[in-house]
Amino acid sequence: MPVRPLVGHREPFLRAVARMADPASSEVREAVADLRETLATQRGIAMAAPQIGIPLRLFVWNLKRPRDPGGPPAKGVLVNPEILERTGSVPVVEGCLSFPGLDLSIRRPEKVTVAGFDEKGDRVVYTGSGLFARMVEHEVDHLEGILLPDRQPALSRLLSHWRRTRWEKRWEKQP
What we know:
- The chain has 175 residues and is of the alpha+beta class.
- The protein is 27% helix and 30% strand.
- It has a domain at 12-92 and 107-146: Peptide Deformylase (Alpha-Beta Complex), CATH 3.90.45.10.
- It is globular.
């Protein structure tokens, strides 16, 4: 399967809500293969289908190693994910493959429970904390058309405007 280019952060496509997917379809199998190949070329831990131009509700992840003993797998796929429960709230500095080089201070839940389908089409439910919880929230945001800067509170957005402005100037200079 091919490595696909990332959709640019200014593309309206990233603002669209992704459509439900048939977990057993060849379309999903091909999308998962493309996502895995593309993620392997990036410095990220997860990637949602809209980031490579596929309007389906699915994402893949590779956390390199399990974070929670007995928790979710280190690598996986979620098709049609639905967050069932969020617990706590922690401040984090987060980046995004769609905004290379931009890290923003936001809040994410400490723990999430998410349901969906794996790549075999089986229903799965995972509960995880820390990096897994933040990753799930981030990728589900992509499926909803919500981008990282949208999650930054108004005061933080105002205080970090200069950082985003510098980042955008650097971005425009890149070929």
